[in-house]
Amino acid sequence: MDLSGYSVSELNKLKTDIDREIRQRRKQQAKEAQRELKAVAEKYGFALNELVGNAQPASGQKAKAKAIYRHPEDPSKTWSGRGRRPRWINEWEQKGRDIDELRVG
């Protein structure tokens, strides 16, 4: 598929449509897999939840990392210590302050 003739906005629209279609198909595949697993479990005299417990499908998102540092004046601003440092951390250190002063508990 040659995409060179598409504008950026057309490509973004196409990407959005593709992502939506992939999600819908994955959902459908999960339902089909669950039906097949249920049939196999019943064939052997089990309920599906007896074999897999209360397993939930992965949401595809990681749990949010726990805050390690908190802004001294705005407690809604936190940083886990992972990824890029927030501007307020850099500003704090530029003032000659120690980052450990911002450490939570």
UniProtKB/TrEMBL annotation:
Give the primary localization class: cytoplasm
GO cellular-component terms in the record?
cytosol; nucleoid; protein-DNA complex
**Highest taxon, organism lineage:** Bacteria
Positions of the DNA-binding protein H-NS-like C-terminal domain: 59-104
Fetch the SUPFAM superfamilies from UniProt.
H-NS histone-like proteins
Keywords of this entry: Coiled coil, Cytoplasm, DNA-binding
Keyword Oxidoreductase in the entry? The reply is no
Which residues does the annotated region (Disordered) include?
56-87
InterPro entries named in the record? H-NS_C_dom (IPR027444), H-NS_C_dom_sf (IPR037150)
Q: Which SMART domains match?
A: HNS
PANTHER family documented for this protein: DNA-BINDING PROTEIN STPA (PTHR38097:SF2), PTHR38097
Q: Which family does it belong to?
A: Belongs to the histone-like protein H-NS family.
Protein's UniProt name:
Histone family protein nucleoid-structuring protein H-NS
Protein species of origin? Alkalilimnicola ehrlichii (strain ATCC BAA-1101 / DSM 17681 / MLHE-1)
